[in-house]
Design goal:
mainly alpha, 3 helices
Length: 132
Amino acid sequence: MNREHSLHFPLQHIHKFLLAGFVVLLLAGAFLFWPQSQADVVQAKSNYLTSFVDTYPHTAGTQLDSCNTCHPSVPDLNPYGEDYRSHGHNFQAIELLDSDGDGYSNIEEINALTFPGDPNSHPGAQPTATPA
């Protein structure tokens, strides 16, 4: 084995070990932080839903007493959820808006127990299945 080859051989192994170590640390870090970030998301949604039902007590136990009021799927927001977020997480600030553009204000839809973020769910419409 010539001298040049013997010097490069150990360096190649060192680089592989460093790269493997970096990948392991990166993955370990991702797994350490993943559960906490998911817990924060779920906690926030739980608080928002509690706030919604506290603001509109007649919605307790109805289809509106669910994450579907603001989310077509987690973590996506429907138009009502977007308006809630953009208005400082204040439900009363968006009552007079028509978030889903169906011709009914959000408060009209909430009082009728229809989804204010779903244009296919509005007062007088045939009941729709809870959005998935």
